Amino acid sequence: MSNSESDEFHPTDNTTSQRDDGEVVNSSQPTSVPDIIASNVGMLFIISAQFFSACMYVSVKILNSLETPVHALQVIIIRMAITFICCVIYMIIMRIPDPITGPKDVRSLLIIRGITGFFGLYGVYLSLQHLSVADATVLIFLTPLMTAVAGSILLKESYSTNQAVAGVCSLLGVVLVTRPPFLFGSIPDGGHLPEGTPAERLAARRSTYSPSYFGSACMMSVLGNTGAYTSIRAIGKRAHPMHILTFLSLWCTIISCLGMSVSNIPVVYPTPWGWMLLLMVGVFGFVTQTLLTMGLQRETVSRGVTGMYTQVLFAVVLERLIFGVMPSLLSIIGAVIIMSSALYVVMNKQTIALESTSDNSA
């Protein structure tokens, strides 16, 4: 980004008013489609990120179905190396200050974002390798609720009852879409991926791992992502999105390399098709993190994480197109609930508190 574009780091002025309960709200109401889009650009970034995230996860699932699966740490190294190179090249070309070290006043937050982001990423990749998509999705999608609560407690952001209800409804929609076996039992409608049933995949690895190990991996992802998303919001617009991605990719690469070295994990050299999938994971991951960072910089945590539930909708569509999985009636009902909840939050932005004052300093 050139110097002339630095104004993007500062939120625009808004007409505000104060309600009887003391909450500051927008007094200007969107009156047209362009106005609604402009006032919800952060949410649109987040929803767009979920599409590319679903594409990335589908690529990971296909990659795991190869004869010699690539370890999650190696996937992270390749993906984040691509992200790091892209970020640094972009910032050098656009003459963004401190392309690697980042702005001095938020470096500690950038480091926290990078480290917590690694654990969030590693947990979800490990879960996708060894748990059913349904079980992993439900557990990982505890992240939006935990992140909204963390934003309310740590960043003092407003978290209204309406937002809480929308979040719970979205989580209910996720459960209906994924129908995890630990809640619904075995699903005989063919709604699983071709690589085998969850029991078969777990049985193949029972000598080394236990199911609780992978459940713990899901919770590690939830806690890691909660810390990552909260730190992004705390950074706000005091750093360029590429700074945040640079720290994430750098720390993920360093920790993953150390992990492979300490654990003596061999490097897998996949087929040309496997390398193509790894490249797709890297590209989709870069676009996902860029859009997600830009969105979370513009939205409160409680609003922004609601849009993350739309990833389930994209996943259902992609599974239908690529794996031929036909969504059931419960999946359709769950998808409607998710979309309705996200749409409700978007259309009611005028009742939500303005961004914290820390975002007004750059």
Automatic annotation (TrEMBL):
Residues 41-178, 228-346 form the EamA domain. Residues 1-30 are annotated as: Disordered. Keywords: Membrane, Transmembrane, Transmembrane helix. It is found in: Membrane. Its main location: membrane. It is a multi-pass membrane protein. One of its GO terms (cellular component) is membrane. InterPro entries: EamA_dom, EmrE-like. It comes from the Eukaryota. The chain crosses the membrane at residues 37-60, 72-94, 106-125, 137-155, 164-184, 213-232, 244-267, 273-292. This is EamA domain-containing protein. It comes from Suillus luteus UH-Slu-Lm8-n1.
